Structures are given as C-alpha cells and as structure tokens.
Write the structure tokens for this entry.
Amino acid sequence: MSNSTVNSDSAEADAPAATPEDAHGHVAVDVTTLDAELIEGPSFATPDVAEYALWLGDDSLILAQQLGAWISRAPELEEDVALGNVALDLIGHARSLLHYAGTASDRTEDDLAYWRTEPDFRSLHLVEQPNGDFAHTIARQFIVAHYLFELYSRLRASADATLAAIAAKAVKEVDYHRDHSTQWVLRLAQGTDESRRRMITAFSDLWPYVEEVFRDDPLIDRLEGIAVRPSSLLPAFDAAIAPVLAEAELEVPCGFVASGGGRTGKHSEHLAFLLAEMQVLTRAHPGASW
Amino acid sequence: MTTPGDSAAEIWPLWEVFVRSNRGLSHVHVGSLHAPDETLAVRNARDLYTRRSEGVSVWVVPAAAITTSDPDAKGAFFESPAGKNYRHASYYSKSEGVKHL
C-alpha cells in the first residue's frame, strides 16, 4: 500500500500508454489508482457492511504480508515470482476492501492497515499461521484459494454493488491462485517420499483452522443478501478439493478443531509479531511518503 | 536436459518462452525460465512474462529441443543475400488494408 492520496483522474491521464516499444510498462510508485467501482460516485458502507469488508480485507492483507516473506527465499526464482504475484493480487483485494470499510468511519485504507492494533484485526487464524516450509505455505494457499474462489463467486451477486464489483474482479485472480496451489499439492504429494511426508504434515498442521473459515458469526445474520453465509460455501469447497486430494492420494485430516475467534479480535499468537513487522515503518515515520 | 537429482544443484530444466501480444501477430521469443515440467512451465511463463498485459497467448518449448545455427558459421550462413537487392520484394506496392506485412 502506498501513503499517497487517491487521485484517479490525474493518474489515468499521466499513465503512459502501453505501446509495443514499452511492452513491460512503467510503474509509478507514487501514484495509486483504485478500481473504478470505488471511485465513481460516493459509496459509503454501513457499519455492518464495513465490518464485513474488514473481515475479508484483513484476510487478504495478512495472507499477502505472509507471502511477501517468501521473496528471495522460495525454492526457485520462478516460484519466488509466482508467490509474489499472488501476494500482489491479495494486496489489491485488501486495498479495495479496506478502502470501502474505511468509508464508514472516515478512515483510509492505510489507517486501517497500519494504525489498528491486534484486537481490532478481524483475520482468520488460518491466514495467520506461519509460512512453515514450502509445503505449509502451499497447503495454506490451497485451502484459502479454494475458499476465496467459492466466496467471491457468490459475492458477485451481493446486494451491495461495491462488494459485488470487488468480488467480480477478485474471483478471476483467486481462480489462478487455486490452480497454482493445486499444481503444487499434486507434485509435492506425488514427488519424493520426503515431499509427500511434508505435504501430509502440512495439511495435518493446518486443517484444525479450516472449521473457523466456514463458521457463521452473528454479523452474517444481519447482512442477509449482502454477505455470503460462510457455512453455505462448505459443500462447494469440499466438492472442489475432493478430486485434487484423491488424485494426490491424500486424505482429509481429522483431529482437533482450533478455537478460532479471529472475527471477534481473538487471534493466534502469530499475529502480533506479523503486525509489528508490517507496521513498524509507518509508526516510526508517521505520514512519510515515497 | 538436466533433471532434478542429476547433479548436486538439482536444477530444473530450461524452457524458452514465446508470447503473442495480440491476435494476428506471431509469438515472439521473450526469454527463458526453469520449470520441472511443461504444465508448470506455462504457469511460470504467465507469472514471469505476462503480468503487465503483454500477452494473449504463451508457448513454452524445452530449450534442449531447439536446434540453432552455428555462430562460427555466420559467414557461410548469412553472407549470400548481402548486395543482392533483387532478392527483396521492395519493388511491389502493398495493397491497401493489408496489415502486419
């Protein structure tokens, strides 16, 4: 995220056209553009809708921050770039959702990302779980991407036009995240004995956090037609992952279920450290820009 | 082609990447990458070479499958057209409406 102000008109006018000579494009880091659905006309979220946008935005933001830690450390340079691309997609979703959430309380996306403390975050415990080894990161991606794909597919029909527009754009990107993690689940599970052992361990470690993803918190009851009921996504989620796990010859782990509570600000022990790293620069230099 | 396990470095095979930027144009070589197999090679190509709207189609080819001309035989290979402008079709006028010729 950038500290600059949002000014769509000048950003579009100044943006260089993509010409064959300039195939890779120029990127100006001091200019931020938001998607059209967020800048055309005033669009303010009600407190309940803002809370829901915060849930989804925080999931994307925390997961993106986690994936960023792989840059320069992935098993191969190509995978470094692939995970970085996924993180950038998620940052895009987080920006749109947090921007919208902020309209209810006159706060910017940066206010929400950098100036809230741990109890004010609404992320799921699943996205807070550490990167672990590559298999853990892939297992977490596999679960989250399949969940987000089902979520955004349905959120496109939301009665809230802004949420629907954000979902319509995000669903294509998480579709690719789904594909990317699926390819790796298949390869790790059917690669060497060591890669298979690690893939199984990763799923066993992360599965306790799946239950919280599909839990219906009370807010959902107040947002009928606007929010997507998480429990309603479970059948589609199960149906989508079953053939992949079958092909990979993996079984859905069973065991204990973690307490959860991310949606009410009760977080795992990992979030505070992640926030400290993510927020330290902004807090050390308030208002600084590139 | 190097396969994982062949050497201590366990390097993935090399693939050459061709991207078509628009319908009607040819695929153009844009670079190379490493990938364990052709499925992931296409994914990696998408991530490395098309994320700023450069392409509508991607090809990957195992680098080992490409046979090249010998750089040392440049003279014998490429010298003969020089100075023979009658080999060029520059005396024809192009019909209107023909793009990409």
The two ends of chain B are 37 Å apart (CA to CA). The interface with chain A takes residues 12, 21, 33-36, 39-40, 43-44, 47-48, 51-54 of chain B (CB under 8 Å).
